[in-house]
UniProtKB/TrEMBL annotation:
It comes from the Bacteria. Residues 21-230 form the DNA-directed RNA polymerase RpoA/D/Rpb3-type domain. GO terms for cellular component: cytoplasm; DNA-directed RNA polymerase complex. Gene3D superfamilies: 5' to 3' exonuclease, C-terminal subdomain, DNA-directed RNA polymerase, insert domain, RNA polymerase, RBP11-like subunit. Residues 252-329 are annotated as: Alpha C-terminal domain (alpha-CTD). The gene is rpoA. The N-terminal domain is essential for RNAP assembly and basal transcription, whereas the C-terminal domain is involved in interaction with transcriptional regulators and with upstream promoter elements. Belongs to the RNA polymerase alpha chain family. SUPFAM superfamilies: C-terminal domain of RNA polymerase alpha subunit (SSF47789), Insert subdomain of RNA polymerase alpha subunit (SSF56553), RBP11-like subunits of RNA polymerase (SSF55257). This is DNA-directed RNA polymerase subunit alpha. Homodimer. The RNAP catalytic core consists of 2 alpha, 1 beta, 1 beta' and 1 omega subunit. When a sigma factor is associated with the core the holoenzyme is formed, which can initiate transcription. It catalyses: RNA(n) + a ribonucleoside 5'-triphosphate = RNA(n+1) + diphosphate. DNA-dependent RNA polymerase catalyzes the transcription of DNA into RNA using the four ribonucleoside triphosphates as substrates.
């Protein structure tokens, strides 16, 4: 099938670029293609590029994330929030992804201090303060740094088993901090209805913006190749397979709509959730553990009870339940 020729850029113009920031221009584009291409690239850049992040941490003498450490100003939850922000650039070959940090004779531990304990990673934001500690105290911290893509919550299943004593943390792998795009009118000879796409990419320094843009484009190309004439195949879903999907959907929807009063909760847990406007099982599993710990009169005992309840139903906290359309009757 013949296709009329499209007005397309013959190159990408890099207006400005350094290790952290790049501005790129695509011109000319047919009307409407600026938003189409810009939005697709932005979503891939923010969600699908690989990077390194801390996936778990172990503190000497600490059993869980809701503890406090003697001599340390911050709670464990606050320290974990700081660790999530540490940005890494890996060496060409990483032989050991475990970092043992010794804190001794210092008042402040920064991300840059981690650098002394690993030859395989470069810390890109060394000035980040992780914790404040009494100078007379000592603390051992064990970090696991892994390669991944996008954002992975702490309660999501991992490829590797969590080491004994470690606390899983939310992992922000993506090396891209922000992406902006804009579309402007562009003139080609006498026609003024073409477009110019401007994409601005900001990274953490572990990847050059140009390489990030190339990587995102490659991912899109690989997916669109599925629709090319050479590889496109269509498979018909058998009716019984559709029924299985429908039955699973309806079962899950019914389960998530279970009212709070039907969950056989203790009085304390029930009252805490009710006062926080949690009305159903679906409302409960949408929450993160850190959110629940902020509820009034909510403690470790109630958390343990709810964790067991959710696990027994093969669910987990932090679930995305939007696809089950719970607001519909």
């Amino acid at each position: 099938m013949s296709i009329l020729a499209f007005q397309m850029p013959d190159k990408v113009v890099m207006e400005k670029a350094n290790d952290f920031h790049g501005v790129f221009e695509f011109k000319p584009l047919e009307k409407g293609y600026g938003v189409t291409i810009g939005n697709a690239l932005r979503r891939i850049l923010l969600s699908s590029l690989e990077g390194y992040a801390i996936t778990s941490v172990k503190f000497s003498g600490v059993l869980h994330e809701f503890s406090s450490i003697e001599g340390v100003m911050e709670d464990v939850t606050d320290i974990i929030l700081n660790l999530k922000q540490v940005r890494f650039k890996a060496a060409a070959e990483v032989l050991d992804n475990k970092i043992n940090v010794k804190v001794k004779n210092q008042k402040v531990l920064t991300a840059g201090d981690i650098q002394k304990f690993t030859p395989y990673f470069t810390i890109l934001n060394p000035e980040l303060e992780l914790l404040h500690i009494d100078e007379s105290k000592e603390l051992d911290i064990e970090l696991i740094v892994e390669k991944g893509r996008g954002y992975v919550p702490a309660d999501e299943p991992r490829n590797t088993e969590l080491p004994f004593g470690h606390i899983a943390i939310d992992s922000i792998y993506t090396p891209v901090k922000n992406v902006k795009y804009s579309v402007e009118n562009f003139r080609v000879e006498q026609r003024t209805d073409y477009e110019k796409l401007i994409i601005e990419v900001m990274t953490d320094g572990s990847i050059h913006p140009e390489d990030a843009l190339k990587g995102a484009a490659y991912i899109l190309i690989q997916h669109f190749m599925l629709f090319s004439d050479q590889t496109m195949t269509f498979e018909t879903v058998k009716p019984e397979e559709e029924n299985v999907v429908d039955e699973e959907f309806l079962h899950m929807r019914k389960l998530l709509k279970t009212p709070l009063q039907d969950l056989d909760l203790s009085v304390r847990a029930y009252n805490c959730l009710k006062s926080a406007d949690v009305r159903s099982l679906g409302d409960l599993v949408k929450l993160e553990i850190s959110d629940m710990m902020k509820f009034r009169n909510f403690g470790k005992k109630s958390l343990t009870e709810l964790e067991q309840l959710v696990a027994d139903k093969n669910l987990h906290f932090g679930m995305d339940v939007t696809k089950y359309r719970l607001e519909e009757e």
